[in-house]
Structures are given as structure tokens and as C-alpha cells.
Amino acid sequence: MAWKAGTLRCYSTGEKLYAKYCDDNHRPEGERYPPSPMWLLRFATYMFTTLKKSAGVVSTTLSAVRSLTVAMGGSVDPFEAPNLKLALRSMRTLRKAKKRPKRLPITIWALARMKGHVIGKDHKETVLFAAILLGFHCLLRASEFVSKDPYGATLLRKHITIDDDKVSIHLARSKTDSYDEGITITTYATNNGVCPLAWLNLAMSTAPNQHPEAPVFQRSNGDAMTYQDLQRYLALLCKRAGLCTQSFKTHSLRIGGATSLMSLGFTREEIMELGRWKSDSYRLYIHHPERLRVHVAARLKKAAEDSSAPVFCGMSLKAFSVTSASTFVPFPTRSSASVPGR
After folding, report:
1. Which pTM does this prediction carry?
2. Most CB contacts within 10 A, which of 134, 184, 272, 281?
């Protein structure tokens, strides 16, 4: 059976984790495959309680061990043990009961404030702020533009096409792209302090590794910027700008991009198209007109220059705090009739 590339990466990570667990606990080679039901239960409990892995990751890792067991001609009976299945169900139940921490949106106004606290001569800050702006303007998930396990760096220099007034990025994989067919997203220059094109140009021109297969966002040694690098820098910028550091995470860029567009009068349907929301996944196959992308850039440019606008788009922190964690965007009641060109 031919596995998808993403599945192979996940299984490889799972097999390595299992091997390390066996090594750390001095498990003899002859007793690793096939594993005993009790050994599997111990391994699953270790992942969930000690490593803080989600129930989904635990299940995927066990599937990787099972796959290798089958390849070695071993029995899969230990994986069907009632105690192991009960433990996995309990993990899923606990996962559902655990509330996701509230994440506030980083809006265009917040970015405009943060920009004044970026140390432009620092290579790392230049690259990470370029990543922040690209993630915001394109409504990206962090794993789509910085290195994050188990996928690594998926956005490479060869995936970027820069023209005079726009940049096109090809996402080789994304959460809603089940078959890794890829999708291309275009964003336009805003020609201001938070212009994604200008900062991306700077980051790419100063990158240590200029090879097409190299990651877009690089450290000074050429390695890919990681999810942890991005999160730490966001917290640092928020602190410098006087914003709450605990409520802003990497996903705040995607939330903030959508929130900003809604506050500027774009319709819910347009935002769902631009952000590739899974709830309407069929929209992935609809061509997004360039007029809409151009209009987005123009409105965000104007908004960023409005120093009188509140950081949170006219909504109080309390209004955001009561928003359901399952809802990406707290949509206010707003008419799109005022949007020019409709």
C-alpha cells in the first residue's frame, strides 16, 4: 500500500518516538515488536501525561507502531486490547473537556503599533516580522509558513513568486488540502510600513541560503525559522507594544486578519474564501477574483494609517473574551453596503 507523503512523515516521527521510549526504558530489541498490550498502554500513557501529546497524536503514533509491527510479520492483537482502547477513549474525552486558551486577534491596527517596535537592523527580527505580515495578509496557519513538527519547513523559496505589486505563494500542503495537491495564494503590496511584499523581499534578499529548496524564513545560519521562534517573537513584540502577551498566539494572525477584514466591511463569504475555512471547503475550488485581492490590500493599507482606530476594531476585550473558542472570527453585525466597488 502506498502511503501519502504526510502520512509517512507522521509515521516516521511516531516510530522514532517509540524507539526512543524503548531505549530510555532499556527495552530489549526482541520485545519491541510485537509489543505487549501492557507495554503499549504504558507508552500511550507516557505520551499523553508526560509529553502532553493530544489523543490524536497518541493514536497516530500507535498506528505507526502497528504498521511497523505488521511489516515485521508480527501480530496486531496487542493493539486491539480492551484496556488500550479504553485508555484512548478516555484521552479523547479528557481532550474534549479541556478548554482551549483564549486567543485574541492581532489586527491590522495592532500590527501597525507593533511595527514601531521592530529592530530593523536585526536579521532575526526582520525575518520574523516578514513572516508575521505574510501570515496575517494571507490568513495562513503557522505550520504553512514556518517549520513545525512533524512536517518541517514546507514553504520554500521556490514556492514564492514576486512581481512588481504582488507576491504569489504556493502552499505545497495545508490542513484542508487532504491530498497535498497544493494551492496558490496571492497578496498585493500595500506600500506602507506593514507591506508584506516589502518585508518579504527584504527577508529573502538577506537570507543566508539562496537555494530554491531552502526555507523562505531563515535564521542567520540558514536553518528554518520554527513555530517556537515565531511564538516567542510575537510575545516579545506584544510586550514592547504594551499588549497582553498571554492572549496572543501564532493563530492570532489568522484570526486577526479575518477580524480586520470583517471590521472593514468585507462579507463573511469573502472572508471564508480568502481564509480557506474548512466549513465551506468547496470554496477552495472557486477562483478568487484578483479584484478582491487588490481591494483587500487597498483597505488594509488605509486602515493601518488610521492612528485613531482602536487596536481591537472597536470591540472591547470583554466582547472578544466571551467568543466561542470554536469560532475563528467574532463576527459583528455589519452591513457591507458601505464597501466601495460592490
Report:
1. 0.63
2. 134
